[in-house]
UniProtKB/TrEMBL annotation:
<dbReference type="InterPro" id="IPR036250">
    <property type="entry name" value="AcylCo_DH-like_C"/>
</dbReference>
<dbReference type="InterPro" id="IPR037069">
    <property type="entry name" value="AcylCoA_DH/ox_N_sf"/>
</dbReference>
<dbReference type="GO" id="GO:0016627">
    <property type="term" value="F:oxidoreductase activity, acting on the CH-CH group of donors"/>
</dbReference>
<keyword id="KW-0560">Oxidoreductase</keyword>
<dbReference type="InterPro" id="IPR009100">
    <property type="entry name" value="AcylCoA_DH/oxidase_NM_dom_sf"/>
</dbReference>
<dbReference type="InterPro" id="IPR052166">
    <property type="entry name" value="Diverse_Acyl-CoA_DH"/>
</dbReference>
<dbReference type="InterPro" id="IPR006091">
    <property type="entry name" value="Acyl-CoA_Oxase/DH_mid-dom"/>
</dbReference>
<keyword id="KW-0285">Flavoprotein</keyword>
<feature type="domain" description="Acyl-CoA oxidase/dehydrogenase middle">
    <location>
        <begin position="162"/>
        <end position="272"/>
    </location>
</feature>
<comment type="similarity">
    <text>Belongs to the acyl-CoA dehydrogenase family.</text>
</comment>
<dbReference type="Pfam" id="PF12806">
    <property type="entry name" value="Acyl-CoA_dh_C"/>
</dbReference>
<dbReference type="GO" id="GO:0050660">
    <property type="term" value="F:flavin adenine dinucleotide binding"/>
</dbReference>
<dbReference type="InterPro" id="IPR046373">
    <property type="entry name" value="Acyl-CoA_Oxase/DH_mid-dom_sf"/>
</dbReference>
<dbReference type="InterPro" id="IPR025878">
    <property type="entry name" value="Acyl-CoA_dh-like_C_dom"/>
</dbReference>
<feature type="domain" description="Acyl-CoA dehydrogenase/oxidase C-terminal">
    <location>
        <begin position="287"/>
        <end position="446"/>
    </location>
</feature>
<dbReference type="Pfam" id="PF02770">
    <property type="entry name" value="Acyl-CoA_dh_M"/>
</dbReference>
<keyword id="KW-0274">FAD</keyword>
Length: 581
C-alpha cells in the first residue's frame, strides 16, 4: 500500500504559490486568519487522513456495511475514522464563525477534503454530505429548523443525506412519486407525512451518530389526491430518523445496494412512511425543492471532482513507486544490458506515468481553482460567479472521466499484479468508477454545459473563460511555446464549435453531441490550467512543466477530434432507429 496516499507538497504548491490563497485573508469573511492558521488545519486533516482514514480503507472494501435487525452497521475502522474527523471539528472548517464554525475559505476546505478522499473516499463522504445538508438547512430553514436539524450535525451528533432519486426515476426527478400529505403546523413549521421509496441513498443508515437528517424531495399531495407533474411540483423536506420528542420516525432502510467499489459508505434503499407516515418539515417554499437542492448538488459536484482527482493522485503515486522498484526487461537503447532495469526506464511506462501525472495535477488544479472561485463569489465577485457557473459541470465530470483513465494506466503499469487484490490499484479504480455516475452523470453535465451554460447563456461565461486562456497563452509564449501553440489551437477549435452550436436552428439537435463538447472543453480547461501552473513564478519544479508539455503534445490534439461531430452537426445518435443500437 502507498505509504502516503497523497502528495502534500503539490497540494501546498497549488494552494499557496499558484492560487496565492494568502490573499483570501483580506476578504471580510476571513479577516484575522493567516496562512499559518490554514496550514495548521491542513496538517490536522493530513494527520487524521493518514492515521485514521488510510488504515481502514482496505478493510472497508472487504467488510461491507451490513443490515442487522433494521440497523446499518459500518466497518469499525471506518466508523472510528469518521468519528475522528467529527471530533476534531474538521466538518466545521468552512462553517461561518457566527454559526459555530471556523470560517475558513472553501479553498482550504477543499484541500482537507482531497487528503481524506485519497486516504479513504468512502469514509470522507459521510461528513461531506452532512456539511452540504447543513448548509442547505442553514440557508433556507427557519431558526427552529436550524436548531433541530442543522445544529446536531454541526455538533457531531447527527449526519445528513440527500434523498433525491427513486427506483424508477433515476435522474429524471420531475417524475418523483414520493408524496407529502399536509399534517398541520408546529414550532418547526409546516409539517407533512411522507410516503415513498428512495434509492441510492449514501449514508441512509449508519451507526456513527445516533441520528440521521434526511433532506427528501417529494411532491405535496393536492386536495384531490393528485401530484403536480414535473419538477415544479417538488418541495424539500427535513425528515429526521429520530423525532424531536426522541421517538423513532417512520423511516427505514429497506435494503443495501452492493457496489463495485466505494463499499465503506452504506448505499441504501429508503422506505418513508410504511406505517403512519414519516414526519417531515418543509424547508423553504412549496415547489422550490429542486432550486434549493441544487445548492447542495453543486457543492457536492465540486466534491466529486476533488474525490476523483485524489484517487488519480493515489493511483499515480502507487504506480510510480512500483515502476521505480520493479525490474523487468532491457532498455531499448541497450538490448544486451546485463540485467533487467526498472520499469521506469521504458519509454511507454514513462508515457503512462506522465499521463497519470498530468491528469492528477490537472484535475486537482481544476478543483482548487473552482474552490477559489467559490470564495471570490461569496465575497461579491460577480466575474468569479460567472466563471464558476460555467466550470462546475466540467469540474465534476472531467476529473471523474479522466481519473479513470489515470487509474487504468496505474493498473497497466502493475501488469498482472495490478489486476489482483494484492495491490491497491484495482480498488482505486473501482472506487473511482462511481464518480462519473453520482451527482449527475457525465451526459447530464454535458447537457448542462452546452445548453444552460453556452447556447442559452446570457452571462458571457464562455467568453470570460476564453479571455483567461488567452492571457495564459500570452505568458507561455516565451516560457513554454509549444504549450502556448497547442492551447491556442484547442481554444480556437472550441470557440468555433460555440459559434456553430449557437447558430444551429434546433438546440435539441446540438445537445445530442453535448458530451463530446464537454470532453473537448474539459481537455481545454485542463491544458490551460496545467500551462498556467507551469508558467507562474514560484517554487514549482520541472515536473509541472513536463506535465504541461505532455498534455500539450499528447492530449490537447484530441480536442478537435471530439469536436468533429459537433462541427458536422451530426444527427446520428438523435435520429437512428432504436432497434439499430
Amino acid at each position: 500500500m502507498t505509504d502516503h496516499p497523497f502528495d502534500r507538497a503539490t497540494l501546498d504548491a497549488l494552494l499557496f504559490n499558484w492560487l496565492e490563497i494568502g490573499t483570501l485573508a483580506d476578504l471580510p469573511a476571513h479577516q484575522g486568519q493567516t496562512p499559518e492558521d490554514w496550514r495548521a488545519v491542513l496538517d490536522l486533516a493530513d494527520r487524521i487522513s493518514r492515521e485514521a482514514f488510510a488504515p481502514a480503507w482496505r478493510a472497508s472494501d472487504q467488510v461491507e456495511p451490513q443490515l442487522v435487525d433494521g440497523k446499518v452497521v459500518v466497518e469499525p475502522g471506518t466508523r472510528k475514522a469518521v468519528r475522528a474527523w467529527l471530533d476534531a471539528g474538521l466538518h466545521l472548517a468552512g462553517v461561518p464563525e457566527d454559526e459555530g464554525g471556523m470560517s475558513l475559505p472553501f479553498t482550504v476546505v477543499a484541500g482537507t477534503m482531497a487528503m481524506s478522499m485519497a486516504a479513504h473516499i468512502a469514509a470522507s463522504s459521510f461528513p461531506m454530505l452532512s456539511v452540504a445538508n447543513t448548509r442547505v438547512i442553514r440557508t433556507f430553514g427557519t431558526p427552529a429548523q436550524i436548531a433541530a436539524f442543522a445544529q446536531p450535525q454541526q455538533e457531531g451528533e447527527a449526519l445528513g443525506t440527500m434523498c433525491l432519486s427513486e427506483p424508477a426515476v433515476g435522474s429524471s426527478l420531475g417524475d418523483t412519486t414520493t408524496r407529502a400529505l399536509p399534517d398541520g403546523e408546529d414550532d418547526l413549521g409546516p409539517r407533512y407525512r411522507l410516503r415513498g421509496t428512495k434509492m441510492w441513498i449514501s449514508s441512509g443508515g449508519q451507526d456513527i451518530t445516533p441520528m440521521t437528517v434526511h433532506l427528501v424531495l417529494a411532491k405535496v399531495e393536492q386536495p384531490d389526491g393528485s401530484l403536480i407533474p414535473g419538477s415544479g411540483g417538488l418541495s424539500l423536506f427535513a425528515v429526521p430518523s429520530v423525532l424531536p420528542d426522541g421517538e423513532p420516525n417512520d423511516v427505514a432502510v429497506a435494503g443495501l445496494n452492493h457496489k463495485m467499489g466505494w463499499r465503506g459508505t452504506p448505499n441504501c434503499v429508503m422506505a418513508f412512511g410504511e406505517n403512519e407516515g414519516a414526519r417531515g418539515w418543509r424547508i423553504g417554499a412549496e415547489g422550490q425543492g429542486l432550486p434549493i437542492m441544487f445548492q447542495m448538488m453543486n457543492e457536492a459536484r465540486i466534491g466529486v471532482g476533488i474525490g476523483a482527482a485524489a484517487l488519480a493522485w493515489r493511483g499515480y503515486l502507487a504506480s510510480r513507486g512500483y515502476a521505480s522498484e520493479r525490474v523487468q526487461g532491457r532498455p531499448l537503447e541497450d538490448r544486451n544490458h546485463p540485467a533487467p532495469v526498472p520499469l521506469l526506464r521504458h519509454p511507454d511506462v514513462r508515457r503512462m506515468l506522465l499521463a497519470q501525472k498530468a491528469i492528477a495535477e490537472g484535475s486537482l488544479a481544476m478543483c482548487l481553482y473552482a474552490a477559489r472561485l467559490v470564495d471570490q463569489e461569496a465575497a461579491g465577485d460577480a466575474e468569479a460567479g460567472r466563471l464558476l457557473g460555467l466550470l462546475t459541470p466540467i469540474v465534476k465530470s472531467w476529473p471523474s472521466e479522466m481519473g479513470l483513465v489515470a487509474n487504468h494506466y496505474a493498473i497497466q503499469i502493475h501488469g498482472g499484479y495490478g489486476y489482483t487484490r494484492d495491490f491497491e490499484v484495482e480498488q482505486i479504480y473501482r472506487d473511482n468508477r462511481l464518480n462519473p455516475i453520482h451527482e449527475g452523470t457525465t451526459g447530464i453535465q454535458g447537457i448542462d454545459l452546452l445548453g444552460r451554460k453556452v447556447i442559452f447563456d446570457k452571462t458571457g461565461g464562455i467568453e470570460l473563460l476564453m479571455q483567461r486562456i488567452r492571457e495564459t497563452e500570452a505568458r507561455a509564449e516565451d516560457i513554454l511555446p509549444e504549450c502556448a501553440a497547442a492551447l491556442r489551437t484547442a481554444r480556437a477549435a472550441v470557440e468555433q464549435a460555440v459559434d456553430t452550436v449557437r447558430g444551429q436552428n434546433d438546440p435539441a439537435a446540438a445537445l445530442a453531441n453535448a458530451t463530446q463538447f464537454l470532453s473537448a472543453t474539459g481537455h481545454l480547461v485542463a491544458g490551460w490550467l496545467l500551462t498556467d501552473l507551469a508558467t507562474r513564478p514560484g517554487p514549482l519544479n520541472d515536473g509541472h512543466k513536463v506535465a504541461a508539455r505532455y498534455f500539450a503534445g499528447f492530449e490537447l490534439p484530441h480536442v478537435q477530434a471530439w469536436l468533429a461531430p459537433v462541427m458536422a452537426q451530426s444527427d446520428l445518435t438523435a435520429t437512428l432507429e432504436e432497434d439499430w443500437v
